Request: fold
Amino acid sequence: MTPSGQLSSAATGVDSALARMRALYETLPPDDGVAVFNRVYLAVTEALRGRIADGYFPDPYATAELGAVFAERYLAAVDADAAGRRAPACWRPLFQLRGHRGVRPVQFALAGINAHVGHDLPMAVVDACEALGAPPHAVQRDFERVGRMLGLLEDRIREELMPVGDVREIGDALIHLAGAWSLDAARDAAWDAAQVLWRLRELPHVYAAFTDRLDAGVGLVGRCLLTPLN
Reply:
């Protein structure tokens, strides 16, 4: 069983991420594309923090570690963009189109989830496993439970952020675009990528090439998800 002191220490990283996401929530305009994703991710992280505390995860310490390093990758990308530095390719479409009036809120939310799950999640699994001194299979059960939480949230996102009223001109296009991306498929691909990355750690040049291709590929999907519809 994980000592309570260890769990408290790991959960501090999640609490720190939550504080920074709440600060973004207070400062970003509500219709900003990053703000839309941030609201979604804040809800996910708050739910994750509650489940860590109530014993939902088989290894709450490992889950807290994964949750903290996962969130840090998103926040680091936000910080890089705010400072005028080059953010990872997976995040650039969202940052570049965050104010486009032809992009709908559900598109911003899905593009952010695509970047975070498709690229940041496998990288975070490796980061967490290195910190824990354990291979990916040691955190697989918790990874899958986090995935189930995200799946429930994806349904909520699609229900709450899809436009209502008269959307005859863009309705079919938006439904098609949103339906073309799957969180389940992205999560499965992230797990496969994490296992590959874990095995490539001793081949730095190959590791770097793989991560670059992963970043670029996820960014391309994100750009498609953010196709302006009017």
